[in-house]
Amino acid sequence: MDALAIHLGDRLGWYRSLAEDGPASPVELAERTGTDARYAREWLEQQAVTGILGVDEDGRFSLSPVGVAVLADPHSLAYSTPMARMVCGAAMHLPELLEAYRTGGGVSWSRLGRDARESQADANRPWFEHRLEGALRSVPELDAVLRKPGARLLDIGCGAVWSTIALAHACPGGHVDGVDVDLASVELARTNVESDDAVAQRITVIESDAADLPEATYDAAFAFECIHDMPQPVEVLDAVRRTLAPGAPLIVVDEAVAETFTAPGDDVERLIVRMRLGEVVFEIFENFGHNLPELSYAPCG
Fold first, then answer.
1. What is the pTM of this model?
2. Tell me, what CATH number does 193's domain have?
3. 203-259 residue pLDDT tens
4. Domain at 7, CATH number
């Protein structure tokens, strides 16, 4: 129930209003956001009862600084409302998921819609903005690639392109191609690129299958938090390998989960369902999230 309520506060702009405009009564919050005062009251009271919002002496509801970081600041490393958005986005497709579990089929990413698409992008964005460059520069071989004038980088499965933008900032003398097969994600990505004048001219967003990319072109390729979602990961990795110049690396960044099946698991294990990729010719580095270990490095021979 809290996840559903958080989703409402996220999508209706209620958290954002409390963060930016300050404490509010139900009527004030409704007027600020163009919503209904009766439902605003029900939501505010529920949020206060569950301990998310505070109630001032004058009866107005407020969001603490910690609440702002977790619920209303899309640049915060603690930003968590996208997770509620993901849960609700998946729940809307439970009939299709039930059928997939019975038959062994699947539900395509394009079917999951805006909530799923934007939640994954927004959940990953803060880490890309604050941590990615430092993580990559901690590996001398990757730091050398990022400093190379005219470097060509590939971001496969770029989604909303926050990772691609971060790569362009980290590689000021290079060009980054962001590639995705999902048209809606590509359209969102192109809008996001245009919002960053500092790197927009050095990013190209391409709707394409990895198999259609040019051969021996890129000085490095990156796959951020996407390989485990692919129905044919080995084929994608093989296609990406062909796009790399001789000796160029592929860096796969994903959730830092346990090395082996563990039950019961910690909170990370409870959240993540890990898809093992089997034997591939690339080193897979699981270094995503707040518990980032030292990055490893392996060239593609």
1. 0.83
2. 3.40.50.150
3. 999 999 888 999 999 999 999 989 888 888 999 999 999 999 999 999 999 877 788
4. 1.10.10.10
